[in-house]
Amino acid sequence: MASSSRASSTPPPRPNLAFRRLRGQRSPGEFAALVRRAAREIGERVSCDARYVGRVEAGEIRCPNYAYERVFLHMFPGRTLTDLGFAPRSAVRGRGARTDAEAPTAHALSGIPAQGGFEHHEQNHCDEESDVRRRAFMTSGTATVAAASLTALPLSGTAEAAAGTVPRPRTAGEAEALAVEEAVRRIRLLDDRHGADGLYRRAATPLRTAYALLDAGTSRQATADRLYAGAGELAISVGWLAHDSGRFDDARSHYAEALATARMAGDPALEAHAFCNSAFLARDAGRPREAVRAAQAAARAARHVASPRLLSLIALREAGGWAGLGDRAGCERALFQAHALFDRGPGAQDPEWMTFYGPAELAGLEAQCWSALGHWERASRHAHRAADVAAAQTPEFTRNIALYTAELADDLARAGRPDEAAAAGLRVLALLDEVQSSRIQGMLATTARVLLPHRRAAGVTDFLAHHASRARG
Length: 473
Fold this sequence. Notes:
This protein is mainly alpha-helical. It folds into 4 domains: 17-85; 87-120 and 128-266, no CATH class; 268-352, Serine Threonine Protein Phosphatase 5, Tetratricopeptide repeat (Alpha Horseshoe); 358-473, Tetratricopeptide repeat domain (Serine Threonine Protein Phosphatase 5, Tetratricopeptide repeat). 67% of the residues lie in helices and 0% in strands.
């Protein structure tokens, strides 16, 4: 999506006056230096400069990424992101985030309530995991939650949509573009917390609607650009739900659809995203050479985006492919590149969908590389770090915490440390009331098989019993 298209089709950003007051009499450059120093104090690395400060104060950055968030909260203890003039993260999780002024229109079109359900606010992470909401998720069932949260792009409530067909809508406009972007954001929020199972089939309806809107056409090029980008991101999000729930063929189809959309729209950021996810899928599907080539294609597209963090993630996708080929040298080269790019820090050009990519994800993906190469002890060290960092820094990403801990359990089991593996496995089982992911369940099943020879050990017995009980239930 070209930034010029977005700028011309949405209201101008609101200046962040609260943040400007905090800068006081310092120049933007002086304040940026203070931000970098505060980051070093807590072990973060951010590439803050006067331009970034200016973009925050102009309201162009509605919510900082997690690294900047930790730095700002360290600099101004006792304040929340909203005290600093930012929007709640839940309002900007997707690529096409709304402005506050647009919220009523988007919610009216999407049929998703602005508050309640699984709409979380940044001020209180405890609310995100409250007992009330956990019970609501457990008693409603994933399909009901998905229905409440993903219905109602325009037309999705009609009889035709329910039957799997989408009628041709009127010419698409601003409202429809906003609704597509809203669907992307909702899917990502739900997946972050609860995993893909149960969401995938419900997400197919807004995806069909998005492409029907593209077929209907628009009267403005800027709106068409937004619809193409939104539909492509939605295809990737639905593809990821298929991927994470073990539907690899479906995922491959959705990623190919996103790639075709990116090529038609001339959108290199969307193309890089589609290839990046395709590389991950190829690795998981046992096609490591394809994973390497897809990652390299993603890197070529990403050169137009100017985001070191995006290139870092893509290098990790390539590393995973080399690990699957058993090429340790190739894997280590890609890992070195991933770390070097990551250490440049976050930047203003980082795609919004990359909010999940921080130190925990870096460690988790590296753990998977060493696991594929059979270096279990090294893999377990990285997996342990991933789980610990995720729990401390991004507790709202429940699915990722479960994933990293499941990786840790498997690595420990294969490293000959059954008691520790069983303890990690039990921690994952405790999260499965909130997280539904076939990927994680498959990892636990593999760990259980590896631990069977140690079933007489007390901790292992407990894990195997709980795992078997859940499998039967």
